[in-house]
């Protein structure tokens, strides 16, 4: 095998890329503390510790999130190693989320990764959180064989903080060809859900109610944005004004129409997303299409993109729901491919809220 290089502090040392390659991965970009062990692209373990403390505030409180990460990261890593049936001495590299995310939360994961790597004298691999979401399609599981995308590959990345269309030419060569100009789709779900009295996060609750509702019951504003970019701020405003008008004449309007409201709102968001990915596929001529990110767990979006794929001759790729939300397995698979390419990080790497 060819030799590659990594840096430990200021020294450059040579290692040989040999099989198996075992990666310890850490994800702490927001309110989930996650650790995973990946060996040769296969998941050996993947654990997530959530933070229910934020539900009372209608969103993530950064200071509370960082404190919870500090309490959770050691036991989560310990259990990830035990479930994978490996020891710390079996780890070849540590992959961690550098950003984007909450700075205090990221700092916990970055600091732990540095300490672990220094103690074991193994390389560090910094990972872009958004790139990791996209590469969740390439996570392998020994007991759950599923096809992985071919290249070039178009991925609709939809989460609470990001809505993008990304073109992949290889595992590590990506280009953003569409982006939100204001709010993300996940934010639209959560903010509109809050208006209906849902707790945070509202997306899963809206999905549950939407199954029982009529998606054509109400109409909300769909923004007109050029090219492949998105906008959701107008939809949130439209939804707010609509509810205000209806509640004036019927104080129980939301409660009496909750299923239809959820179905109509969800349908509007999905149609905005689908129209753009259809346009991107037409422009690029690419037929390998996927979705990723927390909102890709939405049952309506998953169903509609499969239907569009059958209609348009796409090869549609949808990650398992467990790999749609923030998780360390996606960081690990990204770290694995970066390890193979010799893309390692210095110990002066710092977390970044925006990347």
Q: What is the name of the CATH class of the largest domain?
A: Alpha Beta
Whole-angstrom Rg? 21 Å
Shape: globular
Number of discrete domains:
2
Give a quick rundown of the structure.
The protein has 355 residues and is α/β, with parallel strands linked by helices. It has 10 helices and 12 strands.
Structure description:
With 355 residues, this protein is α/β, with parallel strands linked by helices. It has two domains: 3-143 and 325-340, 2-Layer Sandwich (Nucleotidyltransferase, domain 5), CATH 3.30.420.40; 153-319, 2-Layer Sandwich (Nucleotidyltransferase, domain 5), CATH 3.30.420. It is built from ten helices and twelve strands. It has helices spanning 62-84, 103-120, 129-135, 185-195, 203-210, 233-249, 253-256, 258-284, 299-312, 328-340, and strands spanning 3-8, 11-16, 22-27, 33-39, 42-49, 93-99, 124-128, 153-158, 163-168, 174-179, 288-292, 315-317. The protein has a five-stranded mixed beta sheet, with helices on both faces. A five-stranded mixed beta sheet has the order 10-9-8-11-12, sandwiched between helices. It is globular, with a radius of gyration of 21 Å.
Write the layout of secondary structure elements.
Elements: E1 3-8, E2 11-16, E3 22-27, E4 33-39, E5 42-49, H1 62-84, E6 93-99, H2 103-120, E7 124-128, H3 129-135, E8 153-158, E9 163-168, E10 174-179, H4 185-195, H5 203-210, H6 233-249, H7 253-256, H8 258-284, E11 288-292, H9 299-312, E12 315-317, H10 328-340
Parallel strand pairs: 3-6, 6-7, 8-11, 11-12
Antiparallel strand pairs: 1-2, 3-4, 4-5, 8-9, 9-10
């Amino acid at each position: 095998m060819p030799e590659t290089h990594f840096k430990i502090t200021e020294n450059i040392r040579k290692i040989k890329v040999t099989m198996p390659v075992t990666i310890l991965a850490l994800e702490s970009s927001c309110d989930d503390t996650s650790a995973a062990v990946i060996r040769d692209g296969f998941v050996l373990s993947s654990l997530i510790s959530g933070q229910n403390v934020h539900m009372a505030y209608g969103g993530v409180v950064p200071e509370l999130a960082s404190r919870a990460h500090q309490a959770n990261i050691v036991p989560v890593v310990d259990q990830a190693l035990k479930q994978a049936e490996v020891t710390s001495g079996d780890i070849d590299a540590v992959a961690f989320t550098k950003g984007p995310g909450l700075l205090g939360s990221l700092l916990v994961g970055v600091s732990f990764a540095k300490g672990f790597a220094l103690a074991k004298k193994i390389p560090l691999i910094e990972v872009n959180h958004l790139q990791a979401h996209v590469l969740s399609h390439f996570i392998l599981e020994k007991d759950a064989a599923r096809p992985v995308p071919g290249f070039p590959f178009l991925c609709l990345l939809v989460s609470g903080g990001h809505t993008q269309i990304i073109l992949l030419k290889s595992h590590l060569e990506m280009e953003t060809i569409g982006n939100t100009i204001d709010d993300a789709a996940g934010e639209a779900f959560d903010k509109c859900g809050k208006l209906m009295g849902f707790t945070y996060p509202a997306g899963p609750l809206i999905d549950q109610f939407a199954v029982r509702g009529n998606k054509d019951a109400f109409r909300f504003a769909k923004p007109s944005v050029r090219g492949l970019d998105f906008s959701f701020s107008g939809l949130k405003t439209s939804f707010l004004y609509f509810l205000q008008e209806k509640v004036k004449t019927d104080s129980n309007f939301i409660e009496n129409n909750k299923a239809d409201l959820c179905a109509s709102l969800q349908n509007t968001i999905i149609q905005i997303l689908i129209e753009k990915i259809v346009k991107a596929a037409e422009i690029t001529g690419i037929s390998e299409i996927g979705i990723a990110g927390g909102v890709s767990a939405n049952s309506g979006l998953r169903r509609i993109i499969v239907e569009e794929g059958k209609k348009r001759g796409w090869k549609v790729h949808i990650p398992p729901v467990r790999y749609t939300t923030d998780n360390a397995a996606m960081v690990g698979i990204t770290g694995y491919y970066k390890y193979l390419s010799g893309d390692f990080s210095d110990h002066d790497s710092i977390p970044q809220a925006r990347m």
